[in-house]
C-alpha cells in the first residue's frame, strides 16, 4: 500500500519595526536582558495597549503580496495561557477577525541532486493575523533556577497559517524559502531564523490512498530552512514506520532535535486546551481604507490599502520571469539565481555594471563556480566576503580571453583564502603575481604544438590513419605542457593545420 503525506505550515514572522506592537519599547534583538521593557510589557496595572501603525502597514503589504483578501475591519482578542514569560496571563492576537484571509503562495521546488527538474507548487493561505510575541525563559538545570527576559515580550508577530497542501519536506522548505524572499523584499521581516525572527511549525500526517486523513502531529519552532525539510521528512518516515508496525499515531506536539536529527515528544494534544478567547476590551476594531472611491474625510487617519499596494516591490517570481525574458536564460538558472539573495544581487550588479557582459557567462560563473566554491568551503555565498566588483573583474577576464576557467577557480579560492588581506583583494593582481594569464600569442601556442607533435610520433601516425580522437590526446599534451594556460580553442585549430 502507498502512504500519502499531508503537511501544513504555520509561520511566525517578527515584523521589522522599531518598537513593539502595543508599547513604545524598542524591539531590538540582542539587547541586555530586560532593557527593552515598557510598563505594558511587564503587565503593570493601569497600562493600556496602543497599536503600532507601522506593524499594521507591514502586515497589510505582506497580505497584498500573497494575494490575500484584506479585511476592512479586523478585531483583537485575548488568548489566555499561563507562562512565566507572559506576565499578563494572555496574549493579544486576532482569532475571530484576522487582518487578512485567503490568498496563496506559488513557489518553485528545486534541489539539485534531489529533484530532477524544477516544478511549481501552490499552497493556499488560510489567514494572516497580527499578535504579540511572548518573553523568553532561560532554564539553568545546574543552579536549578529559571530566569525571565521580557525583551521579546510584545514584539509584533505576523502569523501565516497555510492550508495542508504540501507533501514532502523539500516542498515545505521551498515554501519557507520563497516566503523569506518575499518578506525580505517587502522589508517586513529580517527573516534571521538564527535570531528567532522567523519560526516554523509543521503539522504532519500520513494516510493510505483513498482513506481519510490520519492523526497529525505538530513539530514546533523549527529554526532553519534546511531543518524544515529534515524535520518534516523524518516525521513522515517515523509515522509510516509506526503504522506499518501496527501502532497508532498520537496527537501530540513534538520538537526537532537538530543534533540527533529526529523529532522528540514534548506534550500530548489529546485534551484540547481552553484558551478562553475573548474580545480585547482595550483595543477598538481596526478599520482600513480599502476603496479609493471613499472620500478622504471619511477615511481620515485610516491606513490606505490601495496606496500600499502601489508601493509593492517586484516579487521573486516576477524577477524570475524578467531574467528568462530579458536575458534569454533558462528557468532553472533563474530559479537558482533568485533563490539565493546574494547570488541575485551579484548577478544584477555585474550585469548593470556593463552592457557588454554576457548574462549567460555571468550566471554560469556565479552558479557553477562561486556557488560550488562556497559549498566546497562550507560557506554560504553571503559569507565569502567577495564583492561584485571582484567577481565582475574575473568575468571580464574570462570574456576577454585573458583567463581560462581553471585559473578563474584558482583566483576565486585565492580571494576566499585571503579575504581579510587587502593586498590580495584584486583579481588582476593575483593573476599577474602568479603568471596565470592565458597564453594567446600565436607564436607561443605554435611552439607548444610543434613540441607535442615532435614528442608524440605514434599519436601523429594514428591520427593520420583516421583516428581523429588522437587530436584531442595531443591537445591534452599541449594543455599539460603549458600548465593549462594555453588558449585551447586556438591550439586545437593549429594542431589540425600542422597535422595536415
TrEMBL record:
GO terms for biological process: glutaminyl-tRNAGln biosynthesis via transamidation; mitochondrial translation. Signal peptide: none annotated. It is found in: Mitochondrion. SMART domains: GatB_Yqey. Its EC number is 6.3.5.-. It comes from the Eukaryota. It is an enzyme of class 6 (ligase). Residues 345-499 form the Asn/Gln amidotransferase domain. Pfam families: GatB_N (PF02934), GatB_Yqey (PF02637). GO terms for cellular component: glutamyl-tRNA(Gln) amidotransferase complex; mitochondrion. One of its GO terms (molecular function) is ATP binding. It catalyses: L-aspartyl-tRNA(Asn) + L-glutamine + ATP + H2O = L-asparaginyl-tRNA(Asn) + L-glutamate + ADP + phosphate + 2 H(+); L-glutamyl-tRNA(Gln) + L-glutamine + ATP + H2O = L-glutaminyl-tRNA(Gln) + L-glutamate + ADP + phosphate + H(+). Transmembrane segments: none annotated. Keywords: ATP-binding, Ligase, Mitochondrion, Nucleotide-binding, Protein biosynthesis, Transit peptide. Subunit of the heterotrimeric GatCAB amidotransferase (AdT) complex, composed of A, B and C subunits. Allows the formation of correctly charged Gln-tRNA(Gln) through the transamidation of misacylated Glu-tRNA(Gln) in the mitochondria. The reaction takes place in the presence of glutamine and ATP through an activated gamma-phospho-Glu-tRNA(Gln). NCBIfam families: gatB, PRK05477.1-2, PRK05477.1-4. Belongs to the GatB/GatE family. GatB subfamily. HAMAP family: GatB. This is Glutamyl-tRNA(Gln) amidotransferase subunit B, mitochondrial. It comes from Anopheles epiroticus.
Amino acid at each position: 500500500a502507498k502512504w500519502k503525506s499531508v503537511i501544513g505550515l504555520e509561520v511566525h514572522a517578527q515584523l521589522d519595526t522599531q518598537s513593539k506592537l502595543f508599547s513604545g519599547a524598542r524591539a531590538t534583538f540582542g539587547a541586555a536582558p530586560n532593557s527593552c521593557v515598557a510598563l505594558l510589557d511587564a503587565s503593570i496595572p493601569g497600562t493600556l495597549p496602543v497599536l503600532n501603525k507601522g506593524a499594521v502597514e507591514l502586515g497589510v503589504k505582506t497580505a497584498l503580496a500573497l494575494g490575500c483578501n484584506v479585511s476592512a475591519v479586523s478585531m483583537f482578542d485575548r488568548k489566555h495561557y499561563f507562562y512565566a514569560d507572559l506576565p499578563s496571563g494572555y496574549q493579544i492576537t486576532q482569532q475571530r477577525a484576522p487582518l487578512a484571509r485567503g490568498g496563496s503562495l506559488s513557489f518553485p521546488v528545486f534541489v539539485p541532486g534531489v529533484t530532477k527538474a524544477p516544478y511549481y507548487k501552490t499552497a493556499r493561505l488560510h489567514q494572516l493575523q497580527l499578535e504579540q510575541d511572548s518573553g523568553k525563559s532561560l532554564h539553568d538545570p545546574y543552579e536549578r533556577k529559571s530566569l525571565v527576559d521580557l525583551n521579546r515580550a510584545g514584539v509584533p508577530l505576523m502569523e501565516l497559517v497555510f492550508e495542508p497542501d504540501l507533501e514532502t519536506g523539500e516542498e515545505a522548505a521551498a515554501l519557507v524559502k520563497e516566503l523569506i524572499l518575499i518578506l525580505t523584499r517587502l522589508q517586513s521581516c529580517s527573516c534571521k531564523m538564527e535570531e528567532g525572527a522567523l519560526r516554523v511549525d509543521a503539522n504532519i500526517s500520513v494516510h493510505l490512498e483513498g482513506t481519510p486523513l490520519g492523526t497529525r502531529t505538530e513539530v514546533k519552532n523549527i529554526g532553519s530552512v534546511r531543518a524544515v525539510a529534515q524535520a518534516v521528512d523524518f516525521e513522515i518516515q517515523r509515522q509510516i514506520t509506526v503504522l506499518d508496525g501496527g501502532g497508532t499515531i498520537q496527537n501530540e506536539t513534538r520538537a526537532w532535535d537538530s543534533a540527533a536529527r529526529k523529532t522528540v515528544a514534548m506534550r500530548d494534544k489529546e485534551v484540547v486546551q481552553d484558551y478562553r478567547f475573548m474580545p480585547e476590551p482595550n483595543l477598538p476594531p481596526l478599520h482600513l481604507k480599502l476603496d479609493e472611491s471613499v472620500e478622504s474625510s471619511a477615511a481620515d487617519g485610516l491606513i490606505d490599502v490601495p496606496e500600499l499596494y502601489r508601493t509593492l516591490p517586484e516579487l521573486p517570481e516576477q524577477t524570475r520571469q524578467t531574467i528568462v525574458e530579458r536575458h534569454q536564460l533558462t528557468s532553472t538558472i533563474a530559479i537558482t539565481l533568485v533563490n539565493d539573495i546574494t547570488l541575485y544581487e551579484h548577478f544584477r550588479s555585474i550585469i548593470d555594471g556593463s552592457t557588454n557582459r554576457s548574462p549567460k557567462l555571468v550566471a554560469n560563473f556565479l552558479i557553477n563556480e562561486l556557488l560550488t566554491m562556497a559549498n566546497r568551503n562550507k560557506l554560504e555565498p553571503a559569507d565569502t566576503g567577495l564583492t561584485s566588483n571582484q567577481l565582475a573583474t574575473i568575468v571580464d577576464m574570462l570574456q576577454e580571453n585573458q583567463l581560462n576557467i581553471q585559473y578563474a577557480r584558482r583566483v576565486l579560492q585565492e580571494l576566499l583564502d585571503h579575504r581579510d588581506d587587502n593586498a590580495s583583494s584584486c583579481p588582476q593582481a593575483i593573476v599577474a603575481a602568479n603568471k596565470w594569464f592565458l597564453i594567446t600569442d600565436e607564436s607561443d601556442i605554435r611552439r607548444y604544438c610543434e613540441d607535442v607533435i615532435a614528442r608524440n610520433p605514434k599519436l601523429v601516425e594514428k591520427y593520420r590513419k583516421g583516428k581523429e580522437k588522437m587530436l584531442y590526446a595531443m591537445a591534452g599534451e599541449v594543455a599539460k605542457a603549458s600548465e593549462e594556460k594555453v588558449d585551447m580553442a586556438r591550439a586545437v585549430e593549429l594542431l589540425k593545420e600542422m597535422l595536415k
